[in-house]
Amino acid sequence: MIYLELFMTFFVIGIFTIGGGYAMLSIIQAQVVTVHNWIDEQTFTDIIAISQMTPGPIGINSATYIGYSVLHAAGASEFMCVLGSFTTTVAAVLPSFIIVLALCHVYAKFSRNTVFEGVMSWLRPAIIGLIGAAAIVLMTPDNFVDWTSWLLFLAAFFVSLAMKANPILVIVAGGVAGYFLY
User: Fold this and answer.
1) How many separate domains does the chain show?
2) Counting Cβ atoms within 10 Å, is residue 91 exposed (0-12), middle (13-18) or buried (19+)?
3) Domain housing 164
4) How far, in Å, CA of 117 to CA of 93, rounded?
5) pLDDT, position 16
6) For residue 109, is it within any domain?
7) pTM greater than 0.85 (yes/no)
8) Tens digit of pLDDT for each residue in 38-90?
9) Distance from the Cα of residue 102 to its chain's centroid
């Protein structure tokens, strides 16, 4: 029964979380600490600290640790605790998987439609503009123009576009250059 409750709780959290793992944390805290009383506030804080230190998305990491912790606190065996981790992780990821799968199906179905192609031709530049705007915001903290960041950006852009360089090598080279410049 606890597995079903864990699954349903984290499935609903996965459905209603927009904005990434950090947005997920307040909903997880409300459900796990306040509504269900599965863990206390200190344990939740410890889980968040561990989730931040481990590789991967913080929302999924915390779901995994919470699934384990809830069953461990209930006195379950090691295997059952791992099964709890698996349950909460799958439940948190499943809504996004279903949504992306549905979007892929819709895209495949309408990709040859002239209206769809027209809408996409207008969306692509807007998306590029949004990504560019985010890059500019990151390169100009507190309205101070960081010319070094702009030069790194232009160099990476030129090398990627004109020289057809491998994007992974461009990222690594940018990281090394940034390390030495900053």
Assistant:
1) 2
2) buried
3) 114-181
4) 30
5) 86
6) no
7) no
8) 999 889 999 998 998 888 888 899 999 999 999 999 999 999 999 999 999 99
9) 19
